[in-house]
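Help needed: design a sequence for this.
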């Protein structure tokens, strides 16, 4: 599940708090998934409070995302 993979990367510090995630097309190519799958993953991470999407700006990693969040909260389907 892409959301879980992205959450692991955020928690590992690959995407620092306050940084902007790569765009939908870039993430899709990087993980071999469609833009739709990327959008769904971003929705899931937004619901978990890990990222904040902003139109025309990008998806920002929230400061509390590293260290305090847990990928154990992920369940199949959302």
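Sure. Designed sequence:
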């Amino acid at each position: 599940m892409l959301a879980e993979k992205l959450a692991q990367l955020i928690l590992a510090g690959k995407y620092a708090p306050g940084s902007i995630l790569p765009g939908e097309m870039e993430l899709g190519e990087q993980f071999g998934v469609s833009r739709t799958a990327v959008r769904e993953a971003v929705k899931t991470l937004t619901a978990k409070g890990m990222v904040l999407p902003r139109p025309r700006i990008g998806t920002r990693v929230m400061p509390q995302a590293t260290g305090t969040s847990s990928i154990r909260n992920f369940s199949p389907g959302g």
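The chain has one domain: 2-63.
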